[in-house]
Amino acid sequence: MELSSLESNFWAVAPGVIGAVGLLFSAFFYFRVKALPEGDATMNRIAGYIREGAMAFLVREYKVLAVYCAVIAVIIGLTLGGLASGSFVLGAFLSLLAGYIGMKAATYANVRTAQAARTGSKPNALLVALDGGAVMGLAVAGLGLVGMGGVYYAFQGHSQLAPILHSFAVGASSIALFARVGGGIYTKAADVGSDIAGKVIENIPEDDPRNPGVIADNVGDNVGDVAGMGADIYESMVAALVAAMAIALTANATELSRLVVDPAATTASAKVAGVVLPLVLSAVGLVVSLLSIFIARAFKHLNPAQVLRSALILPPVILVGLSFVMMQVFGLSQNITVALAAGAFGGAIIGLVTDYYTSSTPVQRIAEASITGAGTNLIRGLAVGMESVGISMATIALVAYIADRALGLYGIAMAAVGMLGGTAVVMTVDAYGPISDNAGGISEMSGLGPEVRAITDELDAVGNTTAAIGKGFAIGSATLTVIALFSAFNLEVNHTRIAAGLPEMSLLLTNPNVIVGMLLGSILPFLVGASTMLAVGRAAGAIVEEIGRQFREIPGLMELKADPDPKKIVDIATKSALREMIFPGLIAIVAPPLVGWVLGPSALAGLLAGALMVGATMALYMANAGGAWDNAKKYIEKGKLPGHAKGSQVHKAAVVGDMVGDPFKDTSGPGVAILIKVMSVVSLLVASLIALR
Amino acid sequence: MELSSLESNFWAVAPGVIGAVGLLFSAFFYFRVKALPEGDATMNRIAGYIREGAMAFLVREYKVLAVYCAVIAVIIGLTLGGLASGSFVLGAFLSLLAGYIGMKAATYANVRTAQAARTGSKPNALLVALDGGAVMGLAVAGLGLVGMGGVYYAFQGHSQLAPILHSFAVGASSIALFARVGGGIYTKAADVGSDIAGKVIENIPEDDPRNPGVIADNVGDNVGDVAGMGADIYESMVAALVAAMAIALTANATELSRLVVDPAATTASAKVAGVVLPLVLSAVGLVVSLLSIFIARAFKHLNPAQVLRSALILPPVILVGLSFVMMQVFGLSQNITVALAAGAFGGAIIGLVTDYYTSSTPVQRIAEASITGAGTNLIRGLAVGMESVGISMATIALVAYIADRALGLYGIAMAAVGMLGGTAVVMTVDAYGPISDNAGGISEMSGLGPEVRAITDELDAVGNTTAAIGKGFAIGSATLTVIALFSAFNLEVNHTRIAAGLPEMSLLLTNPNVIVGMLLGSILPFLVGASTMLAVGRAAGAIVEEIGRQFREIPGLMELKADPDPKKIVDIATKSALREMIFPGLIAIVAPPLVGWVLGPSALAGLLAGALMVGATMALYMANAGGAWDNAKKYIEKGKLPGHAKGSQVHKAAVVGDMVGDPFKDTSGPGVAILIKVMSVVSLLVASLIALR
Questions:
Q1: What count of other Cβ atoms lies within 10 Å of the Cβ of residue A155?
Q2: Is residue A164 part of a domain?
Q3: What number is the average pLDDT over the span B581-599?
Q4: Which residues in chain B have Cβ-Cβ distances shorter than 8 Å to A404?
Q5: Residue A555: what pLDDT?
Q6: Where does the pLDDT of residue A650 fall: very low under 50, low under 70, confident under 90, or very high at 90 and above?
Q7: In A156-252, which ranges are continuous DSSP H helix?
Q8: Helix, strand, or coil here: B648?
Q9: Would A540 be classed as within a structural domain?
Q10: Of the candidates A409, A526, A617, which has its C-beta nearest B386's C-beta?
Q11: For chain A, what is the domain count?
Q12: Do A401 and B512 touch (CB under 8 A)?
C-alpha cells in the first residue's frame, strides 16, 4: 500500500464502521449485564431508588441542556450556517446519548455486582462491574468515532469542513461542561451533605439505611462519575481529533511534507493523510481497547488492582506498535509514531505519578498528620496536591517538547490523540469505580453482611486508585489538546486576516493585548473553582438541613422502625445542581467571544494561554489533593495507623480533609480542567468571526 | 524650568538626599520610642526574651545569607565584573540593614505599647506602635532611595550602568526571598505549633504564660511580619525602580519621544528624564508618606482603623497631584501622570477588595459555615480565596491596559512605581501590626488585666486588616513590576542578540519553546507553595512535640508554679526556618539561568510568563483565604455568631480554618509572590549571558 491509498473511501469510512462495531459490543455488554440475577427485594427496592433518581436527574438536566442547545444552534446557524448548526446539535446529542446509555447500564450493574458478591464470588463481582463499565467505555469511544467519522465522511470535500468539525466539538464540549459541573455538584453535595448529617452530627456509619441522604449519594456517583465523566472523556477524544484535523487542514506544503517519507508525495495526499490519520489511529485505539477489555475479563481471577492497572497500561503499548507498522506500510514519517508514543507513554507516566501521590507515601504522611488534628491534615494535604503538580506538568512539557521536535504543532495534537488512544478502556475502568461503590452502598443498605461488604469494599478501593489515574490522563490530555487547539485557533485567525488583507495578529508575549488577555485568563479557573466549591457548600447545607429535619420529625426513624424519605434529598440535590451549573458553564462559553470581540484576537489568545497555565495546574492540584485526602481517611479506616482506629479523633480529623477533598477532586478540579477545553473549542469556532477585530 | 534641567546633578543627587532625610526621621522615631517607659520587671523579662530570640534568629539568618552573598558575589564578579558584584552586595546589605533596624525598633516598641496601654491611654498606645512601625517604614524607603539613588549618581554615565542596577536588584531580591520565606516559616511554625499544643491539645488560652511556645510565636511576628515584610517591600520598591530605569535605558528614540511634550526635545534629555523620574517620583512619595505619618500621629485620638486607613489612602492622591505639577513644570507628557495614577489608584482598589474579602460579608459566611464543622468552614474559605482573585487580577489587568495605552511598557513600570509611592507608609502600618500583636502577647503573659488587653486587642484587630491591605498592595505591585521586568528582560536579550548579528528571539505564544517554558514556569509557584507549607507543617510538628514534653516533664508548669523553657522552642523554630528556606530560595534563583541556558531565552521568557500568571493568582488566593479564615475565627471570638462563643465546637472548627490559613497567608502566599519577582530580576541579570543560546 502507499500513501495515496489513504485518499480512498475505505479509510474515510473505516473509523465510523469501527465505531459502530464498538457500539455493538457496548450493546452486547449491556444485555449481558441486564440478564444477570438482581438479588432480593430489598436490594431491588434500593437499586430502584438509585436508578429512578439518576434517570430523573438526567431527564431534568437534559431539558435544561435542550434549551441551551437550541439557543446556541440558532446563533451558530445565523453566523456560520445550517450545516455547522446541525453538526453542533449532533455533537451535543451524541454526548447526551453516551451519558444516557452508560448510566442506564451502571444502574443495572450496581445491584448485580452486589448480588454476585453475595454469592461469594469476587471474580464474578469484578466481571459484572467491569462489563457494566464497558458499556459506557465502548459507547463513549464508539459514538465519538461514529460521530466524527460520519461527519468527516459526509463533508470531506466540503468547503465548510472546518467550521462543521469545530461545531461538532463545541456541541460535545459544552454538554460535557454542564454534565461534568452539574453532575459534580450533585454528587459532592449529596456526599458531603450525608456525611455531615450522618457521620459528623448523628455519629451513624456511612451508607446507614436510616440516613435519607445515602440514596442521593449513590445517585450522585452515577450522575457525576458515570454520566459526567463519560461526557468529559467523549469530549476529550472529540477535541483531540478536531485539533489534529484542524491543524492538518490549515497546514501549508512545507509542514505537510514533514508527514511523508517520499519527497515526491503530493501535498494533497499528505493533507488527506494528516486529516484522516487521527481518526484511523483512534479507531485502532478502540480495537486495541476492546482486546484489552477481553484480556482483563479473562484474568478476572487475579488481584483486581493488577487486572485493572494492566488494562490501562496495555493499550498505549500496542497502539504505538501498530502505529509503527502502519507508518511503514503507508510510507508515512515515523515521527508520527514518535509523537503518538510521547503522548501514550506520557499519559502512563502521569497516571503513575497520580497513583503515587494518591495512594503511596504522601497518603501515609497525611494520615500521620491527622494525629495532631484536622489543621495539620489539611496543611499536609494541600501541600501534597501542590507538589503533585510538579512531575505531571513537567511530563506534559516533555511530551510537548518531544512531539514538537518530531512534527511541530501537529505532533502535539497527535500526542493528545495517543494519550487518548485507550479512551474506551480508561472510561470502562472509570465507570467500574462508581458501579462497585454503588454495589457497596446497596450491600450496606440491604444488610447483606460483612463478607459481601468485604468484596465490594475491595473492588471499590481499587476503583479509587484507577479513578485517580483516569483523572491524571484526562487533565494531561486536556493540556495537550488545548495547546493543539490553541495553535489551530491562531492558524484560523491568521487565515481569515490574510484573506482580508490584514497582517497576522501579534502573539508576542510582550504585546500588551496578549498580557492583558493572559491576566484575565488566569482569573477564570479561580472563578470556576470558587463558584463550584460554593455551589457544593450551599447544596450540601440544604441537604444537611433536610436530613436533620427527617431525623427529628419522622417518628421511629432512628430506631429503624420507619423509613426515611430519600426522594426529597434527591430532589434538593437535583435542583441545586441544575441551578448552580449555569454560572460556571456560562463563564467558559461567554468569556472567549466577549474578550475576542472587545479586545481582539491577540487578547483572546492571551486569555487562552493564561487560563491554560492556571487551569491545568489548579486541576491537577485539586484532583490529587482530593484523592490523597480520600485515601488517607481510608488508610486510617483500614487500621493502618496503630492506635487510631475508625471513629477516633484522628479519624475525624481525616474525615475533615476528605470532606474538603470531595469537591476539590470531583467538582472543581474536573470543572476547571474542562473549562480550558471548552474555552479553546469555543475560541476555535469564533476565530473567523473575531479575527478582524 | 525645562526638560534639560533634569540632566543637572541636582536631580541625580536629590533622591539620595531625600532618602537620607527619611533615614534621619527613622532615627528620630527610633530614639523617641526607645526613650519611652518600658513597664514593670515581668514585662521587661518577657520583652527581653522576645528581643533576644528575634535578634538571635536574625544573626543566624544573616550568617547563612552572608555565605550565599559571598558565593553569588563571586559568580557575578566573574561573569559581569567587579562593579556589578559590589552593587549586588550593597543591595543585599541595605536589605539586611533595613530588617535589622526595623526589628530592633519593633522589639522596643512592643513592650512600650503595652506600657502605654497599661496607663489606659489608647491614643498613646497607638502612637507608640505607629512610631515603632515608622522606624521600619522610613528605613525601608530611605535605604531604598539612598541605595538606588547613590548607585545611579555614582554610575550615571558608566557603560555598565544596566548590569550594576540589575545586580543591586538581585541583591535586594534574593535577601528578600530568604528573609520572607525563612521568617514566614518561623512565624507560622511557632504560631501553629503553639496553637496546637496549647489551644487544641491542652485547652489553655492563647498567649498563656504556661505555654513555652508563646515567646517563639511573638518572636515570629517580628522576624516574619517585620524583618521579612520589610525586606519584601524594600525589594518591591527597588525592583519597580530598576524595571522603569532599565526600560528607559534601552528605549529607542520613538519610545522616548512619547515622554516629552516638546517635539524638539533631544532624545538624550528624554532618556535622562525617563531614567531619573522613577527615582524622583519615589522621593516625592517618601516626602508625602512622611507627611502622612505626621498627619496620622496628629489624629491619634480618632478611631485607629480610620487613622490607619486614611494614612494608606492619602499618599497616592497627593503623589498624583504633585506628579501633575511636575510634568507641567518640566514639559513632560501628562501620560506619565496617567500611568502613575493608574498604579496608585489601582493599588487602592486592590487594597479595598482585599479589605472586603478579609473583613466583610465573606468572613461572616465563613464563620457561619463553621456551624456545620471544619469541613464546610474550609470549603467556604478556599472558595472565598479563589473568588477574591477575580476583581484584584482584573484591576491589575485594567491598570496594565491603561498604563500601556498611556506610555507602553514604560507606563506599566511607572504604574508599579505609582502603586509603591506610599512605600514608607505602607511599611509603617504593616510593622505597626506585629508591634500591637506583640503588645497584646506581653500584656497577657504579664497578667496586665482585661482593660489593657482590650486596648491592645483593638489595635491588633486594626493591624490585621491593614496587613491584608498591605499584602494586596505588595502582590499587585509585584505583578506590575514583573510585567515591566519581563519587558526589560526581552529588550536586554534582543539588544545582545542584535549586537551579535542574530535575529530577535521569538516570543510568539505559538513558539513551542515559549509553550514548554510556560508549562515549566507554571509549576514553580506550586513547588514553592508545597515546600513552604510542608516546612511549616514539619517545624510546627517538632514544636508541638517539644511543648508537649515540657508540659509533661517540667514539674509544676501546668499549675503556674514553674516557668517553661521558651528558648528551646525559639531554637527549634530558628533551626527549622533556616534549614527549610534553602530549597524554595534556590528554585527561584537557579531555575531562570538553568532554563535559559538549556532551552534558550524564549523558553526563559515563557518560564517567567507561566510563573507570573500562576504565581500572582496563587499568591492572592492564599493571602486572602488566610486573612478571611483568621478574621472568621476572630468574628466568632467576638461573640458575633449568636450561640457559638469562644471555645464552642463551632469556634474550634474556625480555629482549624485559621490554622490552615496561617501558612497560606504568611508563608506560602508571600513566598510565591516574591518568587516571581526574584525570578524576573535574576532573568534580567542573566539576560545578556543566555541571549545567544
A1: 16
A2: yes
A3: 92
A4: 512, 515-516
A5: 87
A6: very high
A7: 161-194, 213-220, 229-250
A8: coil
A9: yes
A10: A526
A11: 1
A12: yes
